[in-house]
Structures are given as structure tokens and as C-alpha cells.
What does this fold into?
Amino acid sequence: MLIDNRTRAMLTTGVPKTHAVSHPCRLFSKNTGDAFVAYLKQIEEHADPLILALVRDTYGEEHLKPYVTM
It folds into this structure.
């Protein structure tokens, strides 16, 4: 889950176990951007080749290039 820095900090430190997220998930924010990019690369590396081929066929080769500007 990509969330803001403050919410991520709140959820990962000092939250009583009774209020913790009941579903396991990874929390990312601007402060953990490198870890988020590494996580996305891991997903792509382990993706079924058929899925990547369908993405290329549907959206074109450019769609798989990272969008890194605003």
C-alpha cells in the first residue's frame, strides 16, 4: 500500500496490536520509495511471461517503461 509518510509511521510504530491492520500488507511512503521500486521490480521479475506479453500487446512496449517524472 502506498500511503503518506505520517500515516505509514503511525501504522508501523506505536500502534497497539488491537488496532493494527488485520490483513498482512506492505506499507510504502515517500520515505521508503527505494523499497517500493524494488518491490515493483520483484513483481515484474516474477510475473508470468504471458501477462507481460498481454500488457505489451494491449498497451504497447512504452507502457512497461517506468514513468519517473511529474
Remarks:
- The chain is about 45% helix and 0% strand.
